[in-house]
Amino acid sequence: MTTTPPAPALPATRGQIVAWGLWDWGSSAYNAVILTFVFSVYLTDAVGSDLPGDVNANSWLGYSIGAAGLLIALMAPVIGRSADTAGHRKLSVGVWTALTVATVAALFLVQDDYHYLWLGLLLLGLGSIFFELASVSYNAMLTQVSTPSTIGRVSAFGWSMGYLGGIVLLLVVYIGFISGDGGVLGVPTENGFNIRLVALVAAGWFLVFAIPMFYAVPESPARTQQAPRLGIIGSYRALFHDLRDLYRTSPHTVYFLAASALFRDGLAAIFTFGAVLAVTVYGIGAGDVLIFGVAANVVSAVGALAAGRIDDRTGPKAVIMGSLAGMLAVGIVLLFVSGPTMFWIFGLLLTLFVGPAQSSSRTYLARLAPTGQEGQLFGLYATTGRAVSFLAPTLVGLFTYLFGSDRAGIVGILLVLGVGLLALWPVRPPATTTV
Fold it and tell me: How far apart (Å, rounded) are the C-alpha atoms in residues 250 and 429?
């Protein structure tokens, strides 16, 4: 991974950091509303509730997200490398964000009929692909809005903005469109119209709050050494060449990519299946799960902000290890308890650890990335993560099918988190700069 580094940029202003964080705030529309607490529940609890056959809607959701992960694994590193080389990280974020918004808006077409389940799963899979590809270059921009001594706090600020944005949007859609009979706006609920309308609101939310970053944060500089244009095959050849060089020069970076692939897949599964399991296993009402989502986002934001300062002082590895251990302990308890009250207690405790693990994983890699190659490395980060992203969803679907119980799907998530923790244990942490 050799290149001529770009010229150093001026330090980011507070306004640029806020504008960068607003993209995370807007992205909550996809993470909180579409993938976790509203539309995925609508697909499994309403659209696919009377699906004929032996495979239920929960299993099909797992297979759909797993298939999307495979496509992300193939595309992400090439896109990240191209954005680094040409100096168009911001453009890359813009293109994939626009496609995500369009896909979310198209979910309005998914009616409450199992014949539309395939369309909902297809659009959800495409949205996952587009959103992840947007995140590759967005995460790479972290080094443009932070310094080595503030990177943990800036990353945590972004994650907390995402959680807080999720709180506000969940309250808006719950009060306005879902609570009671179509919310305070009295939106018709027949054929899932109110939930389909929520998809349009989520698309608009993401679009509006993504815009400030494109005005405030400068585009990444192109590499001063002009790289030749590569075709698809040539891009993958270059990828394998870069991986070989990376392993020779920084093997622990490769080890981290492999370990994080596992535990990040477990984290993603928590978001994908958390609300679904809350309804089907613990008896939380489909509407009340949004209230839990609001509380969970508050707890996650607090955890991420607190961990950001710990990250800057002790390094990201300690934060990740502690968070994974905490999630495993709480997850084992959730495997055996029942009822809404127990889910509220231990579900919220679980979310306390999710934000720190996510934020510090981003800073871990950003600290390791050579200057000017952040996008490429975050592309590899997405690829290695998605290379096994079929694992947790597939295990959830498999355990659900084999034991005939949605609760059994929790075991699949815990297995992936546990293996990820063991894989991270021997990895050497990156250097930190204390203040």
Answer: 12
C-alpha dihedral sign at 363, 365, 367, 369: negative
**Which pair of tokens denotes residue 161?**
């903005």
Instruction: State the residue range of the domain holding 184.
Output: 14-221+232-424
* Cα of 402 vs its chain's centroid, Å: 28
Contact (Cβ atoms closer than 8 angstroms) between residue 354 and residue 327:
yes
Q: Residue 383 has which token pair?
A: 């690829």
Distance CA 182, CA 178 (A): 5
Domain assignment of residue 433, yes or no: no
Q: Is residue 434 part of a domain?
A: no
276 touches 44 (CB < 8 A): yes
Q: Kindly tell me the number of DSSP H helices and DSSP E strands found in the chain.
A: 16, 0
- pLDDT tens digits, residue range 137-189? 888 888 888 887 788 889 889 888 988 898 899 889 989 998 888 889 999 98
User: Which helix (H) or strand (E) is 151 found in, with range?
Assistant: helix 151-173
Asked whether residue 241 is domain-assigned, the answer is yes
Q: What is the CATH number of the domain that holds 42?
A: 1.20.1250.20
Q: Give the tokens for residue 267.
A: 């984290």
Mapping DSSP to helix (H, G, I), strand (E, B) and coil, where does residue 88 land?
coil
Report the distance separating Cα 157 and Cα 292, nearest Å: 22
Number of domains in the chain: 1
**pTM more than 0.85:** no
Q: How is residue 127 written in tokens?
A: 């949205």
CA dihedral 174, 44, 207, 297 (to 10 degrees): 50
Let me know if residue 292 belongs to a domain.
yes
For the beta carbon of residue 341, count every other beta carbon within 10 angstroms.
11
Structure tokens at 294: 């609001």
Longest dimension (CA), the chain: 62
Q: Name the token pair of 134.
A: 């947007």
Residues counted in the chain: 435
Q: Please give the DSSP secondary-structure letter assigned to residue 36.
A: I
Per-residue pLDDT of 96-143, as tens digits, reads 999 999 999 999 999 988 888 889 999 998 998 899 889 888 888 888
CA 412-418-424 angle, 5° bins: 140
